[in-house]
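Entry:
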Amino acid sequence: MGFYKIIEGTALSLFFLALVFIPMEKVFPARVKQKTFRPHWFTDLCYFLGQYFLWGFLVIWALSYFSFWLNDIVPKNFRHSVQSQAWWLQAIEVIVLSDFIIYWGHRLQHKVGFLWRFHKVHHSAEHLDWLAAHREHPLDSIYTVGLINIPAFVLGFPLETIEGLMAFRGIWAIYIHSNVRLPLGPLRMFIGSPELHHWHHDIERDAGNYANISPLMDIFFGTYTCPDHEPEQFGIKESFPKNYVNQLLHPLLPKSIGEKLTGSKVDSK
């Protein structure tokens, strides 16, 4: 892909997402007083640009490598039997299995200190909207995207189809992070929404709501929460850098170097 094609694709994506989500956030705001150009929006714009210019290709490369590796260990007969099923049954299997795996993978990101070092970059956002959804360390992205696509790999979906699933989940992630409140009533027990995911971003590290598309896993395993109002505060309790470059470096550095370079404490738990 040529450099100008990347620029064009990035600009079109930014324009499309802004065109869809900014009006939605104005008409159905979760936090009425939050502005489009709220604090740290430029940091999140850097994450958006980094994802499209650099890290997105790293994730695709990692997925391609992971796909070739699984091809060698998953029996062809198993894949053939799965692929002989109706497409709708395969789709249900992929969604359910993906949500199960990412639920536990996500819980581990909040429980295991090493995983939290990278995942807390995402949770450092103090304001949620469509742009904040892109605040994610590239190594955290590889972990998440790899886990969530394991069922699709095992079932033998081609990489092109998996990239389509990634695009869908990407739009979904942007929606549930957006500054939108569209209460679903009883349906919120089955379908994820901003009103659920905003509580996951509560300043308390173990606030719950770890599931992806559907909250059923949270309901089954006792981590579901959905009060009828917004959390008082988003973010993390730990000291953390505010700029893009230092946020990327922070999880990679030893404690002493990290504190000296970023001016904040590196969590060693």
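The chain has a mean pLDDT of 86.
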